[in-house]
Amino acid sequence: MSAVRFVGLRKSFGDRRVLDGLDFSIARAEVYGLLGPNGSGKSTAINILCNLLDADSGAVEIAGRPASPAARSVIGFCPQEIALYKDLFPAENLRFFADIYGVPKADAAGRIAELIRLFGFERFARIPVSELSGGWQRRLNIAVALVHSPEILVLDEPTSALDLEARHELWRTIEALKKRGMTVLLTTHHLDEAEQLCSRIGVMKNGRIAREGSVSELLSLVPAKAIALIEVGDTAALLARASQLGWGVRRYAGKIGCLLPQQVALEEVVRALSGIGVSSVSLQRVSLEQAYFEILQEGREPPSTNPDDSTLAQGSEAPTPVSRPTA
Amino acid sequence: MTPSGFSLVLQQTTAIARRILTEYLRQRRTLIFWAVFPALMLLLFGLIYGANPSMPGSMDTTPAGILIGAALFFSCLGGTVSIIVAERERRTLRRLLVSPLSPAAYFLGVVLALSFVAFCQTVIVFALAYAMGARYRGDVTLGATIVALSVFAFVGLGFFFGARFAKRAEDVNGPVAAFGVPLLVLAGTWFPVSLLPKFLLQIAWFDPVFHMNEALKGVSGRGLGWTDLSASLIFLAAFAAVSLALGIESYRRMLTEEKRS
Question: Fewer CB near the terminus (10 Å): N or C of chain B?
Fold first, then answer.
């Protein structure tokens, strides 16, 4: 039985349809990553799950039952913003939310001590939250969501606005929860985070799941074994050469990416592109980022077939597929 | 066993009250203001009455006006508005919305915390007044009832203003000063209402703070009883009930709107 199941969920704000038949389920003890561009409906889906919004139609099931307020008590919600009482100490925040969730007094002290240990707050016992770093506040934000021992943890962009080190620290915490068998629904814009933490990922587009699968299943959507990122003055020459070599071409963040059908050494790529004025080449493994862009691009018309078109030079959230010149 | 029903509401209510009081203790600045302002006002009025023995009114009735206008008005009305605005600004309101916290428990928690603050302010004001020679002449239970009704009225109004009009902390001070201070003056908080022109006195009768002052001045300074103060007590009780109902309804509406945002 699924821990959470979204069935044909629809939601509109005025004329704008945000969820358009959202269907997916999360298995128990699974870390499910919900990805998608801004406005794709991730937050709306989470808000409906957490009873912050009502759906127009469709249903949410928790452990096979309709998501009544009682059923929702098994959810621990960690919002995107740091929502804590900053004049209180970490343990006081945990105690407050334990009382709000009705954790019995006899259990609360033990539960709070366990979370303090798990999240490493021992040395901050007498420090108000306002004096903690952003990373520690984010950790406490998650710890508070766990104080009533929920079965399902909902993390809405838990590492936004964190530096790299703090993000990695938080990843370790989420991995520790994963090892304890916690069911987690995670939304994030950091694709490396989803790749690192999630056992399954759903990519939302236009209010529904466009693709879903494990990281390796999503990576297989990219028709390449490796990506060569290339800076070149003469784009047309590169496109012609790539066409001759049978390489697909995409634009990623201002660079042209050639989709290599097999693993090749950097020297071979440089040799294959000699004579067309390449200024830099780097090789990358296929990552979730490329798979994500492939999914977002599915079903869209390529914006231009002209390599000199200005749209090619602009960075966008989705890559611009570059069509090969016909002559 | 997980608490439910009344025991859960009780647990939540005490959690809200304890949290608010802990925050006040940590911030200190607010508590100092709430203690120092009425104390200073009392000292000033003590000096004024000392220098002008022929002035209408007396030092015995002064602590009542100071308690209502310089203490409870700011702590219970201004304090409630600030609590609600802070909950919104910190985004904790959204977190609470996801939790099983009942609106009644939240409301009662705020009332409990601010009642405790009001009790401390009452003790400070009357203890200082006693040290300055003023004497409490009436029934303590009646005085406590008037203070409690005033607290309920102010907290209810605080919920109404905080939930309906104040989206940010900056929104709080302007309306409180613009509407609150004239109401205090009209209510005879700082000087006897006998100084008001007749038409203003008629208007003042509809000012709830007027009845808080009149009732508390009557019991504390002149030793009046329940029957003597019945008109003000009835007005005050009705006003407290209306403002509590208004506050609860505004708070419920705010939660619904917050859910939709």
Answer: N
Q: Could you read off the pLDDT of B16-68 as tens digits, one per residue? A: 999 999 999 998 999 999 999 999 999 998 888 778 777 666 778 889 999 99
Is B98's CB within 8 Å of A50's CB?
yes
Q: Which residue of A has its CA nearest to B11?
A: A99
CATH class belonging to A4-219 = alpha beta
- Which ranges constitute the DSSP H helices of chain B? 5-27, 29-51, 62-66, 79-89, 92-98, 103-131, 140-164, 170-175, 181-186, 198-204, 208-221, 230-260
Return the residue of B nearest to A48 by Cα.
Answer: B259
Residue A301: per-residue pLDDT: 55
- Cβ-based interface (< 8 Å): residues of A facing B: 50-53, 69, 72-73, 75, 77, 79, 81-88, 92, 95-97, 99-104, 128, 144
Q: Measure CB to CB from residue A102 to each of B3, B92, B98 and give the nearest one.
A: B3
Half-sphere exposure of B175 (CA within 13 A, CB side): 18
pLDDT tens digit string along A11-52?
999 999 999 999 999 999 999 999 999 889 999 999 999 888
Amino acid (one-letter) located at B73: F
Domain boundaries, chain B: 5-260
Average pLDDT value for residue range B68-97: 91
Q: Backbone phi, then psi, for A222, in 5-degree steps?
A: -85, 120
**Domain definitions of chain A by residue range:** 4-219, 226-321
Residue with the two structure tokens 């605005």: B85
Q: What is the CA radius of gyration of chain A?
A: 23
Hey, what are A275's tokens?
């004579």
Chain B neighbors of A101, CB-CB under 8 A: 99-100
Tens of pLDDT along B186-224?
A: 998 887 888 889 999 999 999 999 999 999 999 998 899
For residues B223 and B138, the answer to whether their CB atoms sit within 8 Å is: yes
Asked whether the predicted pLDDT for residue B248 surpasses 80, the reply is yes
Contact A88 B23 (CB under 8 A): yes
b/e per residue, B160-184, with b = 16+ CB within 10 A? Answer: bbbbbebeeeeebeeebeeebeebb
* B11/A99 Cβ within 8 A: yes
Going B155 to B158 to B162 to B163, the CA torsion angle's sign is positive
**Contact, B211 vs B232, CB < 8 A?**
yes
Q: Which residues of A touch B27 (CB under 8 A)?
A: 87
Please state at what angle helix B103-131 crosses helix B29-51, rounded to 10 degrees.
40
Q: How far is CA A289 from CA A193, A203, A209, A312, in A?
A: 11, 11, 17, 19
Residues of B in contact with A69 (CB under 8 A): 100
* pTM > 0.90: no
The pLDDT value recorded for residue A312 is 37
With contacts defined as CB-CB under 8 Å, which chain B residues touch A144?
95
Contact A286, A222 (CB under 8 A): yes
Nearest CA-CA partner of B165 in B72, B81, B48, B64: B81
Residue A90 CB neighbours (<10 A): 27
